[in-house]
């Protein structure tokens, strides 16, 4: 990251000087993360002919946690899991979205996102900055049942959208149905039933020609 300080959105219309310092930091952060609405993903929407943005993706994951939590193989704290999915992509405001099937774009992804987390969460009061960073690290490391389920939702949601688009990013040049299965297998770390359903959709998509079949093994 450059030593030059980034201009913040809140600076375009500064808050009154007499605003409480803690509240100022919190509002500055909330204005800054409005940029999540501008980060486009590769996944198509089911309801419109356009790509989704990161804010729409994060909202959809939160709804999926509420609806699908009963399918977790281990008990999870739904509220905690919702926090994980709502903040997991905030770093992409500064780091950008990295398409799942783009290996070249994935080079250096972890370093970019860690630097973005350091910069973005530091806008908050210290106690909240530590809390947000801890949640982000938890999601990335998948060290808890909640983080595993949150990651499963992050993989299942675009699978559903690609099914609705009759292929979507499954049609990425050079990608096969086996590649899709490999990248989505993490769903099974949290929910065997959801992974069975996910594989069923991938298999059916391959059968319908919505993804490429792999080279037959001898």
TrEMBL record:
Residue ranges crossing the lipid bilayer per the database entry: none
Cofactor(s) required for function per UniProt: Mn(2+); Co(2+)
Swiss-Prot/TrEMBL keywords: Hydrolase, Metal-binding
Reactions it catalyzes: a 2'-deoxyribonucleoside 5'-phosphate + H2O = a 2'-deoxyribonucleoside + phosphate
Classification via Pfam families: HD_3
EC number per UniProt: 3.1.3.89
Start and end residues of each HD/PDEase domain: 50-168
InterPro entries: HD/PDEase_dom, HD_domain, YfbR/HDDC2
Top enzyme class: hydrolase
Assembly mode: Homodimer.
Protein name: 5'-deoxynucleotidase
Species annotation: Streptomyces lavenduligriseus
